Amino acid sequence: MLREFIEQLDKLPQKAMVNCVGIDAEKPLIGIISAQSDVSTAHKDLDAICSRVKEGILASGASTKSAYVPSIDCTALHGTQSLKYDLPSRDLTANAVELICSNEFFDGLVFVASEPNIVAGMLLGAIRMNIPCAFVCEGTMMPIVYQNKERGFIHFYEQIARIKTGKTPFEAMSEIESNLPLALGTDCERYGANSFNCILEAVGLAVRGNGTAAALSVERKNIAYKTGELAVKLANSKWTPRRLLTQTSLCNMAILDLACGGSSTTMLNLLALAKELGIKNLTFKTIGDMAKSTPLLLNREDENRCIMPQFHNAGGVYAMLKQLLEARLVRGDVYVYDGVSLEQLIEGVTVNNIQVIRPADNSVMGSSRLRAIYGNVAEDGAFVQYRNEPSFTGTAKVYSNEEMAVDALLHREIRSGDVVVIRGEGPKSGPGMREIYTSLALLKGFELEDKVAVITDGRISDFYDGIAVGHITPESGEQSLFSVLQDGDEIEISVPKGKINCDVKAKELSQRYRDADIGVSNYGNFFLKNWAKTCSSATEGCAYKAKK
């Protein structure tokens, strides 16, 4: 691409620029786009990953240049206002990639990032420019070991609740603090924190082990090197994202994610990708239908160990794909790069531990933990995450944001039988659609998971074992029952029926609409306010929608 570009007579100034920055126009040029940040657990050491990627590119006969995009790290920002920037960072990243790649020089790209929404934004940008690309991340953090048990980052949030209730003595705080993680990477306790990097393996945009291998390991360095080689291979064959990401490929990605437990954030991003690609048959409804028929296959065999190391040692994403292919749940005839199908890609793969990566006929559950539900509380739909009890009926306790719900939890105001309603966390009402994390972690620490339910227009975290409903649409601020729910309302949630309802008479509802001051007043600063004006609803992936 670069050579053809600068050989045109009227591109003499561009040829001079190429000479100045030291680009070899005789070789394919692979850009390395990194989200490196020294104030991020997931992005701090990406320069080391980039160096190995560069070695793989050069060894494959191509040349390379680097560029950077801004990034946010949500690992330690849960429960803070800063988390409002997490989902909007996806679109900022997509715009930055489009800007960087608009010079028409790159034959291929390697994206180096770990946070799911940053990675999704990079892919959105690559789709716009339709440049062959590959992805690599920092990897999962080393587990925190406390009381002879491996734990992830959620451990610190849970301990707040345990100390408040006296289950953990306050004097133990010094020991807990001494176990603060020193290693970098994404949370090893949560599949959802690694989900997008996992599903990229299913479409050939990342090499084997990318989503599951540990950070700072020899294996991670080898993965980075192979990613450089993959990028050159994709560039030489001109295997672009728009050729690769078909409707079938996106469905395979969704089914893989659902079989691993399901991440509501990943589903948002898949819906946004479908819109960017012009694929109309991957919708909130079709994802809901897939969730009903996709069994949960990822299992925590050892309760004393974190899930991601177990998943990786059992064979990782490729082993999961093998189980799904054998059960005919995903299509193996889709191409992952030129001339190689998914079925050929995982040929010879073995499942190292069938207790961790189950076969479909011995699944953990008959359907995914993530399901779609509808009702008068969520007329356009919502996602529900559950593990044990599939139904719950309780009385509402309504809070205007997560901070208020957290405060109520810490003051022991939430009790068995409550439905915790957290409003003002949607894409427009937040704005930004934070992940409801701290309140769920506290409920887990208070041992209330099987005694209460949580519903919100924000996103929901995948570690929670109780019933949590997120992405409620229409969100708060719009004329809907969810916007006018009151303390004491009885709410029924039924996963088998796919329903979430509240018994409010039409006359009472009309009176609430008249009395309520429905509107969005929780705006942040300029960036968030403008993002909220241009994003679609959660059931449409919060994808960019032009102003009318």
Explained architecture:
- The protein is of the alpha/beta class and 548 residues long.
- Helices cover 36% and strands 15% of the residues.
- It has 20 helices and 18 strands.
- The strands form 5 sheets. The protein has an 8-stranded mixed sheet with strand order 9-10-16-14-12-11-17-18. Strands 2-1-3-4 form a 4-stranded parallel sheet, sandwiched between helices. Strands 5-6 form a two-stranded antiparallel ribbon.
- Helix 17 (402-410) links the parallel strand 11 and strand 12.
- The longest helix is centred in the middle third of the chain and has 19 residues, at 218-236.
- The radius of gyration is 23 Å and the shape is globular.
- The model has no long low-confidence stretch (mean pLDDT 90).
Give the topology, please.
Layout: H1 2-6, H2 12-21, E1 29-34, H3 46-59, E2 63-68, H4 88-100, E3 108-112, H5 116-129, E4 133-136, E5 144-146, E6 149-151, H6 154-165, H7 173-178, H8 195-199, H9 218-236, H10 241-244, H11 247-259, H12 264-277, H13 284-293, H14 307-313, H15 316-326, E7 335-337, E8 340-341, H16 342-345, E9 370-375, E10 378-385, E11 391-399, H17 402-410, E12 418-422, E13 435-436, H18 438-445, E14 453-456, E15 459-460, E16 467-473, E17 490-494, E18 499-502, H19 506-515, H20 526-534
Parallel strand pairs: 1-2, 1-3, 3-4, 11-12, 12-14, 13-15, 14-16
Antiparallel strand pairs: 5-6, 7-8, 9-10, 10-16, 11-17, 17-18
Short description, anyone?
With 548 residues, the chain is an alpha/beta fold. The chain is 36% helix and 15% strand.
DSSP helix count?
20
Tell me the distance between the termini. 37 Å
What is the strand content? 15-25%
Pick out the low-confidence regions.
Answer: none
Biggest sheet strand line-up: 9-10-16-14-12-11-17-18
What is the helix content? 25-40%
Largest sheet: 8 strands, mixed
Over all CA atoms, what is the radius of gyration? 23 Å
Structural class: alpha/beta
Average of pLDDT: 90
Task: Give the overall silhouette.
Answer: globular
Count of DSSP strands: 18
